[in-house]
Amino acid sequence: MKKSSEGLGASISEMLDTEYRGVSLYTVAMMLLVIAILWTGVSVVEQIQTYHQQYGELQKLKKQFRHLQMEHQRMLIEQQTFSATPQVTNRAVTELNMFYPNLSDRMIIHDNKVTVFTSDASSNESNTPAINPETQH
């Protein structure tokens, strides 16, 4: 058995030592191995570079997401603050110059009658029709 394994090793080494048109088969095999190793190294470097770029982008997006979550929470708090009735009233008066109408400024319209509330009518608690559209032309 020892002879057959030595014979196999010897035949492989003889085959690699033989030259084909001046180029050793051993040299060609080593060049292919070197090229394969270099190609593998370049591929690994490209994958690591891509990983680092994507990781950096992920970190930026996570930071932006946290910022947007905080802003969303702030907006919800602000919405709750401004939805309170006193806050709405205060902003309506100060920013929009709105006001509650006086009784004399209020008008209720029913069917064909217009009822105007005045301060006198409110003290009597009776609604008097002020204008009847059917009688005016």
UniProtKB/TrEMBL annotation:
<dbReference type="Pfam" id="PF04999">
    <property type="entry name" value="FtsL"/>
</dbReference>
<keyword id="KW-1133">Transmembrane helix</keyword>
<dbReference type="InterPro" id="IPR011922">
    <property type="entry name" value="Cell_div_FtsL"/>
</dbReference>
<keyword id="KW-0131">Cell cycle</keyword>
<protein>
    <submittedName>
        <fullName>Cell division protein FtsL</fullName>
    </submittedName>
</protein>
<dbReference type="GO" id="GO:0051301">
    <property type="term" value="P:cell division"/>
</dbReference>
<feature type="transmembrane region" description="Helical">
    <location>
        <begin position="23"/>
        <end position="45"/>
    </location>
</feature>
<keyword id="KW-0132">Cell division</keyword>
<keyword id="KW-0472">Membrane</keyword>
<keyword id="KW-1003">Cell membrane</keyword>
<keyword id="KW-0812">Transmembrane</keyword>
